[in-house]
Amino acid sequence: MNSDEHEERGEAGGGGDGRPATELSAREIAAAVRGGSRSARAVLEDHLEQVDALEPELRAFLRRPSALARSRAQALDDARARGETLGPLAGVPIALKDIFVTRGVETTCGSRILAGWVPPYDGAHAERLERAGAVLFGKLTMDEFAMGSSNENTPFEPPRNPWALDRVPGGSSGGSAVAVAARMAAASLGTDTGGSIRQPAGFCGVVGLKPTYGRVPRFGMIAFASSLDQAGPLTRDVRDAARVLQCLAGHDPRDASSLRDPVPDLEVACERGADGLRVGVPRAMIEQPGLDPAVRDAFERSLAALERAGAERVDVALPHARYAVACYYVLSPAEAASNLARYDGVRYGLRVERATLRETYEATRDAGFGAEVKRRILLGTFVLRADSYDRYYGRAMRVRTLIARDYEAAFASCDVIATPTSPTPAFPLGQNAGDPLAMYLSDVFTIGANLAGLPAISIPGGLAPATADAPPLPIGFQLLGPRLGEPTLLAAAAAHEAETGWHAQRPPLLGGLTRGALS
Amino acid sequence: MSARDYQPVIGLEVHCQLNTASKMFTGCPSRTDAAPNELTDPYTLGLPGTLPVPNKAAVEYALRMAIATDSTIQPVSRWARKHYFYPDLPKGYQITQNDHPYALGGGLEVPGPKGAEHETTYVRLIRIHMEEDAGKNTHLHGEPDSLVDYNRAGAPLIEIVSEPDIRSAAEAARYLKELRAIVRYLGISEANMEEGTLRCDANVSLGPAGGPLGTRCEIKNLNSFKFLELAIKAELRRQRDLLERGEPVRQCTLSYDVARDVTRVMRIKEAAADYRYFPEPDMPPLLVDAAWVARVRSEVPELPAARRARYRGLELTAYDAAVLTADAALAAYFDAALARAEGEDAITPKKLCNWITGELLRRAKEDEGASLEPGRAPVEPAWLVDLVALVERGVISARAGKEVLGKSYAERVAPADIVERDGYRQVSDTSELSALIEGVLDRGAKQVEQYLGGKDKLLGFFVGQIMKATRGQANPQVVRPLLLEALRRRGS
Predict the structure, then answer these.
(1) What interhelical angle do A26-35 and A238-248 show, nearest 10?
(2) Do A117 and B48 touch (CB under 8 A)?
(3) Residue B270 pLDDT
(4) Is A289 on the interface with B (CB under 8 A)?
């Protein structure tokens, strides 16, 4: 894409109006930095101040390489002063889930077993974002090895939901959702294996986009379940998500599963509107016992908004959707058990030295992995045993094919499929921590997209009314598209956003305006 | 039951390291001569976030092998992970092919034993698959720590699995030699057993002749042709002893103890590791279309079996053909010489072969196995042809030819130049030789008398005197009729 087009489309008026940079979208920041009305340094400082102010309560960051970020921002300002043209994310402060490998900056994947590991290389994500001009300034907390739906599976302090500090922000990309919702980062990167971008985005009231499998390369993203993992952006509006994805997407020869298909202009796609789009609603799948009535109500309001924007509602069936959670909890632990075999204390990360090799392996992995990771390694090891392979892994692979065919059939009669992102709004910290099954069921609406490799987005879908124990909490609205259907998905999401304006709702923690604006 | 009532049944699993510039799934360089851990990169070390990407050159080398052995290339094959924990295995799994290897079936013709090379056998293949190698653990005696070298980790391998078609230890060694010749012809591997670029495991069973198959035992890590043969023999002895004592042979994995010439059980198969194979999720299936196979096929050179057949057609013996084809460089040398000798009727393929497999090969072996690859050989094929022509035309004697070849080899000088420089040219001028003969006969009047008296053996004496007088340069073919004629004249 021609970078000048960004300039024209960017909301250049947002630049020099005295608002703190934390109130700007990523596009506004890039336009301001490219246009010279704000320096990348000043933009970064605004965000670092916000982090200083809110981080003690929110705990989203595992690491803040501020000096590195400042020199990076300064380099951008210097480049501009020399007359160089800056990229589409010029000066945008972006924080990465700690699953993304960053050269010279400790990367732990939220696990003790990688404590102290400083990668000697940059992953595709850090590389591509920096090439686009982004200022990477932090590594965000997550469920250990991305295994979890609340970000409580962490050896560190669990992060808090900015809408209610006693609630989880969702997971596994909890830190990524918190940082964006609390205006500590203009955008962040998360990863989604079974809903890990979309569910926390929904819980925190931000946009979370999981692209088609292979659209964003996986090189430099620490593997959880290779056939399901996909990186994507969390942002505060749909067009920001489109821009960040534009910078991330495209083939990488270092990833054999990354797609070679050309990447269309995704911001242009956002302008299409929803007129004439057929929105498929898998009613039988949505109506399940665990569905919170507030989520159901919000979902209906979202559908109505899309209809007002010109979309048409159609019924679709996903007959095998009810097997998705079971299928996922066979396949993903199998791949995880394999992917995590490399953490043996021999070459990097934690080593707990014992008298024999075997004891060293056991002590290292016992001390290095948390309970949920161990549970999944055990599950995965079990289902791959020669005597249980056919009954579990083999069967789950066949079910996966059936689920993918369901979606294919459904997309014959609709353009996007709508569901709630999660059956409930954010739950209290500790509520599901001792009940893995309840936790697994919170992924019921998101897992299908991963099994079928399809793109899906969670956008703000309104607030659940306050109750006796909870303030108003965000509810996510999910849209799924066919393979490589990001343009349609973004069009529908942008139309919904324009119709509802719900993306502008702010966590009460931030006040009506931010600190900067009050001064 | 006596020993000869048992039938050995043997199959080999051969690992061959491909000599591509980079490793199987990463651009990291692959060599065998680097300092420890010099050949590593983030993928090789199993660093988090790294991914495997198949090396196209390695796949093409593997395809060559399948084509060379008539193994059926599969349009779709799959990568799989094989899991076990060991410090030399950086990811905790090895990427290999399990259920869906890239090549199935095929086989190769194995020459018979020395002197009966034409009695070939055909050993079928079950499959060939690609995989990445592990690193190397070294445990220093008396040290608490082990050392790990990851240079080899990720190196490209093919594993060639034979059917249990082999019937003796000697045949197993011949099969492996033929396999080595093929991969060397293909240029896809150094195939050096000492350096570990060719490795072999043997599955051995012994059962009553004509009866059901015996229980299969696997001998691991046989790193020379000699040990392969000795180990199989030792294992057959072990199994026969068990059978004759009426004890069962249990399926097991063994190692060969060189010092005691016995096989030792490492582990019983029931307790074997479960490798938890599953399809590699980081890479899509490997797709090989007909056009790709056709292109690779066009790059496959003439192979040992075909060359042996062609050489027999040139009226070489099966032994000669086997010697020439055992080494791709030697066969190429012979072919280059053949092409050069085209049109020289006096230089038959058999004569060239004799010079090459005799005098030249002997010198190369003395020269620590120097390569005879055309272009690198100390004596170029064209020189050798020139030398043979000099001998055949009688310009120099056969004995002088050997000396000239020796000098040519040592000094890298053309034989024709040496002949001139060092005066090896034979004396064939009849008037010059006639005068010489008359002189010799005059000086040996007594012997002439005896010869004429019937002592025919004295002919050799006269020849010797003439050779002595010419410092060996008289052409015996010319001398002989002149001498007989001169003697006849004196007797009449």
Answers:
(1) 70
(2) yes
(3) 58
(4) no
Disruptive mutation site among B28, B85, B139 for chain A (greatest number of A CBs within 10 Å): B85
Please write down the HEC assignment for all residues of A210-243: ECCCCCCCCCCECCCCCCCCEEEEEECCHHHHHH
Which residue in A25, A149, A172, A176 is the catalytic one? A172
- Based on the residue annotation, tell me whether A97 is a catalytic residue of this protein: yes
Smallest Cβ distance to A222: which of B48, B52, B276?
B48
For A484-509, the pLDDT digits (tens) are: 999 999 999 999 999 999 999 999 99
For position A7, what pLDDT does the model report?
43
Give yes or no for a contact between A470 and A145, defined as CB atoms under 8 angstroms apart. Answer: no
In CATH terms, the fold of domain A3-315+407-518 is Amidase signature (AS) enzymes (3.90.1300)
The phi, psi pair for A284, rounded to 5°, reads -65, -35
User: Quick check: B398 and B391 in contact, CB under 8 A?
Assistant: yes
Minimum mean pLDDT range among A333-337, A513-517, B51-55, B473-477: A513-517
Domain boundaries, chain B: 3-292, 327-421, 430-491
> Which parts of chain B have pLDDT scores under 70?
1-4, 269-272
A196 labelled catalytic: yes
Residue spans of the domains in chain A: they are 3-315+407-518, 321-398
Q: For residue A126, is pLDDT > 90?
A: yes
Residue of A nearest to B84 (CA): A341
- Kind and range of the H or E element at B9? strand B6-17
Note the pLDDT of residue B373. 87
Sign of the torsion angle spanned by Cα atoms B153, B154, B156, B162: positive
Interface touch B47/A120, C-beta < 8 Å = yes
Model ipTM value: 0.94
Region A247-263 average pLDDT: 98
| Whether B48 and A255 lie within 8 Å, measured CB to CB | no
Q: How many CB pairs under 8 A join A and B?
A: 98
Q: How far is A109 from chain B (nearest CA, A)?
A: 9
With CB atoms and an 8 Å threshold, state whether A114 touches B48.
yes
Side-chain half-sphere CA neighbours of B409 within 13 A:
20
Residue of A nearest to B278 (CA): A384
For the domain covering B430-491, report its CATH number. Answer: 1.10.10.410
Residue A442 falls in the annotated catalytic set: no
* Residue B263 CB-density burial (10 A; 0-12 exposed, 13-18 middle, 19+ buried): buried
- What is residue B202's predicted lDDT score, i.e. its pLDDT? 98
Q: For the segment B218-236, what is each residue's pLDDT rounded down to a tens digit?
A: 999 999 999 999 999 999 9
Q: Give the tens place of pLDDT for each residue, A1-59.
A: 444 444 444 444 445 578 999 999 999 999 999 999 999 999 999 999 999 999 999 99
The mean pLDDT of chain A is: 94
| Measured distance CA(B241)–CA(B256) in Å, rounded | 17
Task: Give the nearest partner residue to A257 out of B45, B93, B282, using CB atoms.
Answer: B282
* Separation in Å, CA of A265 to nearest CA in chain B: 27
Q: What gap in Å lies between CA B348 and CA B314, rounded to an integer? A: 9
Residue with tokens 């209809």: A307
